[in-house]
From TrEMBL:
PANTHER family: 1,4-BETA-MANNOSYL-N-ACETYLGLUCOSAMINE PHOSPHORYLASE, GLYCOSIDASE. GO terms for molecular function: glycosyltransferase activity; hydrolase activity, acting on glycosyl bonds. Gene3D superfamilies: Glycosyl hydrolase domain, family 43 (2.115.10.20). Keywords: Glycosidase, Glycosyltransferase, Hydrolase, Transferase. Pfam families: Glyco_hydro_130 (PF04041). The keyword Nucleus does not apply. Belongs to the glycosyl hydrolase 130 family. It comes from the Bacteria. SUPFAM superfamilies: Arabinanase/levansucrase/invertase. This is Glycosidase.
């Protein structure tokens, strides 16, 4: 039993390894990382930045797959243990709400969130420039593309896993048309997933250097007795380019644009070969987190160097203690963000 309670489901088969006795950080890597290799399926060069949820006693994922023409699309995969994956051979074939084929020109960085009995995918899609795409499925065979929630340019859309004050709530990161050199996290709410409003500022890039250029939400928030636990990415610009690390914060349960605590130190940064070396070096990019409410175990899926999917672990007690002990939330972070 954990001290901090996770409000969620039991997941006794969550992928898991205990923390190595000589490791001092709050988040530790799976010893057999990465869990995907190069050229994982015909026509696909790399799979990374992808999202996973429990499904039918095992796991299902929506994967960012960079095809051999360089264009990213979304592919479905299934796994018994959350580690060894079988990917569908064909990319997701979306239909619109009339049932007609609807194929985005490109799709990347999916997040997958179950709300009530429906699974939602939020990803970066093309709409006269990058913005958030939204689709739903119940069976991972039929995918209905819904209206884009926001205008361009936007990325890193993450839905909360339940309605808050009877509204759907989405985190997002307004961007520009390229490799955006800025970015704060905002929040918007909707009664119906069509009309979005009541926009709030959640948090800015940080004063700490690892997150000094921009930030973006990562995994769907996990509800705990301390608030919503959010894993996100923070970026620093170095003389060799961007470096992406993983950070964590806790948002207020009823007013999640209020940051209660935010770690001033990263919780994972590129150190292993598969994070430092690849198509884009020095990238750790979280997109999903599984949790087991019974034990407080958490498994985080992250993209490594835009080339692989990797896994890391923590517990709710360990990560919440770390965030609080290293809290550097600003007054602006702690405000409602109007
Ligand atoms: C961001 C996104 C991510 C990518 C990262 C590093 O802008 O495009 O998909 O992992 O850059 O290349």
């Amino acid at each position: 039993m954990s001290r901090v309670k996770i409000y969620g489901e039991s997941l006794p088969n969550i992928p898991w390894q205990d923390k190595p006795s000589d490791f001092t950080g709050p988040v530790w890597r799976y010893s057999k990382n990465p869990i995907t290799g190069r050229n994982p399926i015909p026509g696909v060069a790399r799979i990374f930045n992808s999202a996973v949820v429990p499904y039918n006693g095992g796991f299902v994922g929506v994967f960012r797959a960079e095809q051999t023409d360089g264009i990213p699309h979304l592919y479905v995969g299934f796994s018994k243990d959350g580690i060894v994956w079988e990917f569908e051979k064909e990319k997701i074939q979306f239909v619109n709400e009339k049932g007609e084929p609807f194929m985005p020109r490109y799709s990347y960085d999916p997040r997958l969130i179950k709300i009530e009995d429906t699974y939602y995918i939020v990803w970066c899609t093309d709409f006269y420039g990058p913005t958030l795409g939204l689709a739903k499925t119940k069976d991972f065979k039929h995918f209905v593309r819904l209206e884009n929630p926001f205008m361009p340019f936007n990325r890193n859309g993450v839905l909360f896993p339940r309605k808050i004050n009877n509204k759907f709530v989405m985190l997002s990161r307004p961007s520009d048309n390229g490799h955006t050199p800025f970015g704060d996290v905002f929040l918007s709410e909707s009664p119906d997933l069509i009309y979005w409003g009541k926009h709030r500022h959640v948090m800015s890039k940080g004063g700490q250097w690892w997150q000094s250029l921009k930030i973006g939400s990562g995994a769907a928030p996990i509800e705990t007795s301390e608030g919503w636990l959010l894993f996100y990415h923070g970026v620093v610009l170095t003389c060799s380019g961007y470096v992406y690390s993983m950070g964590a914060c806790i948002l207020d349960t009823d007013n999640p644009s209020i940051v209660k605590y935010r770690s001033g130190s990263y919780i994972l940064t590129p150190e292993e070969w598969y994070e430092e070396r690849g198509f884009v070096p020095n990238v750790v990019f979280p997109c999903a987190a599984l949790c087991d409410a019974d034990t407080g175990r958490i498994a985080i899926y992250y993209g490594a160097a835009d080339s692989y999917v990797a896994l890391a672990f923590t517990t709710v007690d360990e990560i919440i203690d770390f965030i609080k002990a290293n809290d550097e939330a600003t007054n602006d972070d702690r405000s409602i963000g109007i």
